[in-house]
Amino acid sequence: MVGQVDLSSTAVGANAQFVGSNPSAVAWNGSTAYIGGYNASGVTANTAIAPVAVSLALNGFNQATDFTSTGSFGTAFGTFNTANTRGITQLAIQGSTLAASLDNGANNLNSVRAFNAGTGALNWQTGGGTPDATRRGNAVGFDPGFNGAGSNQGVSYLALGGGRRHLMDASTGNYINGQNAGAIINFPTVSTTWRGMAFNPTNGDLYTREGNRVGRAVRNGDNTFVGGGSTIAYAPGTYTNAVDNNSLAFVSNGANSFVIFNDRNATAGGQAASGVLKAMTTAGALQTLNLFDMNSSALSLANGNGAYGFSYAASNQTLAVTDFANRQLYVFSLNQPVPEPASMAALGLGVLGLLKRRKKA
C-alpha cells in the first residue's frame, strides 16, 4: 500500500463530493480516482461520481518515497436519481473519457454513459445518436481491439439478460457493430447476470464476472471470441447471481499479468478481506495474494461486506481498490520493494553478530 484516502465524506449529502451511501466503483488513472456511488438509503436517492486527486510520491521505479498521501475531492457530477439498492456498477477511464455503467433497473435510457473526466460534462448515453432504452448495462470497459488493433476499439458494456459484448464509439456512443451484433460471450452454463468486465490490453481477451464466478473469452477476431463464448476461469465454492458488487481488474506488470477480483457470495458484514480478495493467472490458476502495508509488513484490512472495486493504472503500475463497507480508497504499487525472508534472516544474523561483538568488547 502506498496511499489511503478516507471516503466517508462522499456519503454526506450536504457535501459537494456526495456520491451516495457507499463507494461501489472506481476508475483510476494513476493520479485521480473517480468514485462511483451506491444507494443504500432505503428510498430513492441520488448517486453520482466524484473525482479524488491522490498525491503519491513515487520515484522512477514507481516506488513510494513518501507514504503520506492525501485526497483532494472535486465536485461530484453525473448525478442520477437512483432506486434503493442500485447504483454505479463499474467505471473505466481512457484519456479524458470516463465511462460509467448504472444499474437502475430495467429499461433505463442512461444505463451506460460517457463523461469528460476533466469537466464532468456528459458526452453521450447508451446508443449515442440512436438512444437505447432496452439495455440494463451492468459492466463497462474500454475494448482495446483484437491484439490491440482492428476496428473494434471503443466503450464496451454488458447488459443483464444478454449474452453479447456490446461496443460503442468512444466519442459518439454509436454502436460499432450494430445494436444487436456484438460478439457472443455466453458461459457454458448460460447465465447473464453480469457484474463486471476487464480486457487484456495486449490481445483483447475478455474477463467477466457473471454472478460471482469469473469467465474468460479468448479473442480470435475483431468481433469474435474462440468457440463463440466464454470458459469458466474461476468457479466459486458457492455460486450466486443474486449478490451485486462483484468486481475485477486486469493487472499487468511487465511479464507478470493477473486478474484481481472479490469472491462475494453474501452481503453480510464481518467478512474478512483475506478470504474475499483473490487473484488468478490469465489462464485461471489461483495465486497467493500478498498485500503489504506502507511499512512492508503484512497488511490486514478491516472486515467488511466483501464488496470491493478495482482499477489498475498501467502508467505508474498502481492499483486502486475501494472498500464499500468501510468507505476507504486504497492504492497499491506493484513495485514497492518488500524484504524477502532470506534478506530478513541475514539481517537478523547480522544484528545478532553485532550484539555478540558488543558483549565481548
Helix content: under 10%
Class by alpha and beta content: mainly beta
Number of helices: 2
Average pLDDT number: 90
> What top-tier CATH class fits best?
Mainly Beta
Beta-strand percent range: 35-45%
Rg calc? 21 Å
Largest sheet report: 9 strands, antiparallel
Name given to the CATH homologous superfamily: TolB, C-terminal domain
N-C termini distance: 42 Å
Number of strands: 29
CATH architecture: 6 Propeller
- Looking at the structure, the CATH topology is Neuraminidase
Number of domain modules: 1
- Gross morphology is globular
Q: Can you tell me the residue ranges where pLDDT is under 50 for at least 5 consecutive residues?
A: 342-361
Write a brief caption for the model.
This protein has about 350 residues and is mainly beta. Helix content is about 5%, strand content about 40%.
